[in-house]
Amino acid sequence: MKSTVKKLDDNTVKALTKVCEQAKSTISGFDWLTHRADFSNFPNSLVITCVFLNEQQIVDAKANQHDAYLRKLIQSQLLKVGIVLKDVRRNVFFDSEEACQIGHQGDWARRLSSFH
Description:
By secondary structure, the chain is an alpha+beta fold. It is 54% helix and 16% strand. It is globular, with a radius of gyration of 14 Å.
């Protein structure tokens, strides 16, 4: 990995780790998050997946506007490390352990590579 790409990825991880820690303590059902990116088209290609335990928790989170809160938190933390997203709604997605288990037998690598 080139040093520029490594630094971008490290900064992304640093920002998203803060988001994850805060979200776990404030949003019911939020479990973890992950990201993928094509660094030749960064940050446009950045895809962040916020994972809840089950589908109902995603519905509840959206009903309570926690999806907007998560997007704002992600955008804010990324901005602190110099990463600007044009429209965070195009970069942040929601998924669940339940849906991964049903659709991909718990294989997150396969699931993430087939979406977004």
